[in-house]
Amino acid sequence: xxxxxxxxxxELLFNAIFDIYKIFLxxxxxxxxxxxxxxxxxxxxxxIGLSLILTDITIIIYISLLFxxxxxxxxxxx
Length: 78
Known about the structure:
This protein is an all-alpha fold. The chain contains two helices and no strands.
């Protein structure tokens, strides 16, 4: 009985963390598209746009690795 409750709690935690990851990933991709559009219409300088794009891609990769490690650890215990 306790094992079923623990498994259910882990599943809920896994789903909650995955939902948070999707929000962060969506925000990062939205920022990436916004910067690309802004630079393509010449509203910002190319150098600043390129640095923002590279920073955003780096942050997306870091967040993916971080959340992937957390989710994998929870998944191993399910």
